[in-house]
Each structure stands twice: as structure tokens, then as C-alpha cells.
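Let's inspect one such protein example.
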Amino acid sequence: AADQINLIPQDFFAELCEQIIQHLNHKIPGVNTAELCQRIQTSGIEINIGDLAKIANILSFLFSTAARNNLSTEELITALGSAVSTLPKHALQVIRHVWNEQGSSISVSEDARNMATLGQFVDMKWKLGVAMSSDTCRSLKYPYVTVTLTVADPSGQITDKSFEMTIPQFKNFFRQFKEMASVLETV
């Protein structure tokens, strides 16, 4: 991981750390590693999204563990111990700065920890489509609904999950949402 961290410029690494802190403070639903990875690649740095996601998970674990143990900035840097020699200097400076500025703001209540194990719904998009034909069938005219759910998994990684439904499946889906809405109105 230290080799991959070394590839990330200081400004992008700082942005990643800031997003992780915001996620841990429940200000944002997760860290959009796909978008950040694309911006890093656009700047000419060769890194893949899997490596960036691993770095984000490591940093998230580091910050949440430090918050749970109420570590000061110096205690955190000392706790990194042997990693200090392998981590790039710019990464240590960013970790030190971010933790010094915002580390004490991380709340780690029991409710927040339990909620974090589930993941979080971020957004939903849908579109209506019609399959006109295929190579095996000349005239389908088959309507369908494509739904894309954006979710933040427990580690804070934001991903899109897409699925298609027939019209009867969508009507059932819609009916269930209406039931949820009516139950929520009584709360």
C-alpha cells in the first residue's frame, strides 16, 4: 500500500483523507473513489480503482481506530510506528495535518458503528426503455425499467448497482415504496 500511496500526489491524498474524515463524521455518505481515481488518472498518474479503494479502507480504519482510542496527533504518528519509515513523507504530513485539524471531531457512537455495518443509500436513478428487436426476434417491443442505486458500503466506498425490471415487477416495486411511505407518515 505504501508504494501506491507514494504514487498519489499530496493534494489528491489530502482530498482522500478529508473525504474519509467527512464520511466518518456522517457528513457525506461515502468516498467516491471512482471519481477521485479518474481525476488522478487524468493528471497522468497510473493507479487503478482497486488500489485506491484499498488505500481508502486503510485510512478509514486508521482514522476510526484512532478516534475510538482518542489518540492525539503525536500518539497517532507514534502508533504508525514502523509504517513511518515506509510511508512517503507527504502522506505522513497530510495524515498529521488532517488528524490535528479534524481528528477530535470524529464521533464514534455505538449507534453510528452499528449503522455503518449496513451501508447507506445515496441516490436512485431510473429510466424506461423498450427492447425493439434482437438478432433472434424481429419485433420485441418489450418495455422495461432500468434502476441504478448508488450505495455507500460500510467502508464508505460509493458504488452503483443496476438492475432491470419488467413492468409488472416495477408496479410491485412501486407499490412497496408507497406502503413504506404511508408507514413513515404515521411515525
Remarks:
- The mean pLDDT is 82.
- The beta strands are 120-131, 142-152, 158-166.
- The radius of gyration is 22 Å.
- The chain has two domains: 1-115, 118-185.
